[in-house]
Amino acid sequence: MMMRYPNGSKKRVSRANTAPASSADKYSNRGMTLEEDLNAANIYYLSRNIASIHKKPTPVQIVNVDYPKRSAAVIKEAYFKQASTTDYNGVYKGYHVDFEAKETRNKTSFPLSNIHAHQIAHMEQVIYQRGLSFIIIRFAPLEETYLMESEYIIEYWNNQERGGRKSIPYQTVKDKAYMIPFHFQARLDYLKAVDMVLEKLEEN
């Protein structure tokens, strides 16, 4: 299927390799995507009434459909109607939770090119309304995942706009963010890091 992005670029979406992995594979293979890990964690949280957090659907406009049979329709081409804000939102302990999830193959920094201006504006709005806004960053080659509060992302973004560096150093992420370890039940139990953010807010 051909997908069109808001900037006009095209990408063919393969239907291959979409079979779900077994539970044993999920735990032994840390090559799962960040999105898969977060979705699994959110299912775990919801099933135990811990939190209600979901991935935001992106509106899609279908432009070409094939009907090989009356009972089946195959989407041949579609495009995203608008740019998204952030990936996930929901409620946890009475707080509105809103965050973006990003993976990078870079070992030494997190490129700010992974973030867009409209997402920065959205983060600022969430913070203004006293919601919890952050980014979950995975350094894929290092198999390390961090929760970084949006304030730091916004600060680096603004510095970039004034001619500063175009990435956040890995060491800064390690120093300022909260590392999210892997677990057996919720492989990526990121709410443990959110709890530490809440503890800091209560202290202030």
From TrEMBL:
EC number(s) from the headed UniProt entry: 3.1.21.10
Keyword terms of this UniProt record: Cytoplasm, DNA damage, DNA recombination, DNA repair, Endonuclease, Hydrolase, Magnesium, Metal-binding, Nuclease
Cross-referenced InterPro entries: Resolv_RecU, Restrct_endonuc-II-like, tRNA_endonuc-like_dom_sf
Matches recorded under Pfam families: RecU (PF03838)
Family: Belongs to the RecU family.
Function statement: Endonuclease that resolves Holliday junction intermediates in genetic recombination. Cleaves mobile four-strand junctions by introducing symmetrical nicks in paired strands. Promotes annealing of linear ssDNA with homologous dsDNA. Required for DNA repair, homologous recombination and chromosome segregation.
Protein name per its UniProtKB record: Holliday junction resolvase RecU
Source organism per UniProt: Salimicrobium album
Phylogenetic classification of the source organism: Bacteria, Bacillati, Bacillota, Bacilli, Bacillales
Gene that encodes the chain: recU
